[in-house]
What we know:
4-stranded mixed sheet, 1 helix, 37% strand, CopC-like, copper ion binding
Amino acid sequence: MKALYNTIAAATVAAAVLASPMAMAHATLKSSDPAAGSIVDAAPKAIALTFNEKIEPAFSNITVADGAGKELATGKATVDEADPAILRLAVAGLSAGTYTVSWAVAGHDGHRRKGDFKFTVK
Length: 122
């Protein structure tokens, strides 16, 4: 009976160890252009977000809001064909001020992640 208990305990521990990398396989933002918290001299023509893994275009988006929280009318974010871990959104006509970039993406595991950051145009 003790051997059966030890076998079940060992199998449970092994399953937990093997499953833990899969649980951590969510898309995570690695970097952005413009960088989070940055102050830029010129308004960017696009927002580019780089994630730690390929993201699913159908379930991924970026929005940009001005300092008053008003969402700016922009097009749809697109995944970079050369590097599917990069999501881009063209932006035009940003004037001086602080902007909030909000993003939501789904990685290859299907789990949706979201976040936001601010940057300022001088």
